[in-house]
Amino acid sequence: MSRIATAICAVIAVAAGGYWLTQSPSTVPVPQLVGSAEAQNADLDTSTIVEMVQGAEDAPVEIIEYASYTCPHCANFHQGPYKQLKKDYIDTGKVKFIYREVYFDRYGIWASMVARCGGPEKFFGITDLIYQGQSEWTRAGGPAEIVEELRKIGRLAGLSNDQLEACLQDGTKAQTLVAWYQTNAEQDGIQATPSFVVNGKKVDNQSYDEFKALIEKELGN
């Protein structure tokens, strides 16, 4: 089983448990919860999940990034090549950029819930803060300490405690995000993060120069 497929099963189990925010996986009867999640996922409306998009809607090149907030390679991409990509192609109307979360663990879904808590307007700013602080919040200690570090990031971005608690305790949203992620990952054949789909063609993580050459080719240059 691939890492993505294994992660799907693990995160579904946590999201379906009803105690997905506070209960340790070691205390959760995983097989029973996986079955429960699969039954519930059939009724979830994944169209309620908002695609997080930057750039012109009619840009000639569309790039979809699949990334996990707990993935160090994803953090490296967002602290380096992504910033150059945004300056050269997204902000200039040449690339429509779509960010889709991948969930390897419950920490990744908690980070996603915080990032999405402020809506599309705050999403990419919070995402940047989450990646900037990845090495700190992912090593903060146990689940309670990690959640508190993510709350701090949310507050730094202007979210209130009430907003954050409402987002973090929304179990239905968590399950819907997992179902959405599962559909996307299977549809695009995602096996690792970060992975990219450029105008419908999957490409692996690469240097900015390689990315630039690929984009220029798609632009016909």
From TrEMBL:
Domain Thioredoxin span(s) in chain numbering: 24-220
Keywords attached to this entry: Disulfide bond, Oxidoreductase, Redox-active center, Signal
Signal sequence coordinates: none
GO molecular function annotation: oxidoreductase activity
Superkingdom classification of source: Bacteria
One Pfam family here: Thioredoxin_4
UniProt entry tagged with the keyword Membrane: no
Family of this protein: Belongs to the thioredoxin family. DsbA subfamily.
PANTHER family, per the entry: DISULFIDE BOND FORMATION PROTEIN D (PTHR13887:SF14), GLUTATHIONE S-TRANSFERASE KAPPA (PTHR13887)
Described function: May be required for disulfide bond formation in some proteins.
Name used for this protein in its record: Disulfide bond formation protein D
Organism, as annotated: Ruegeria arenilitoris
Biological classification of the source: Bacteria, Pseudomonadati, Pseudomonadota, Alphaproteobacteria, Rhodobacterales
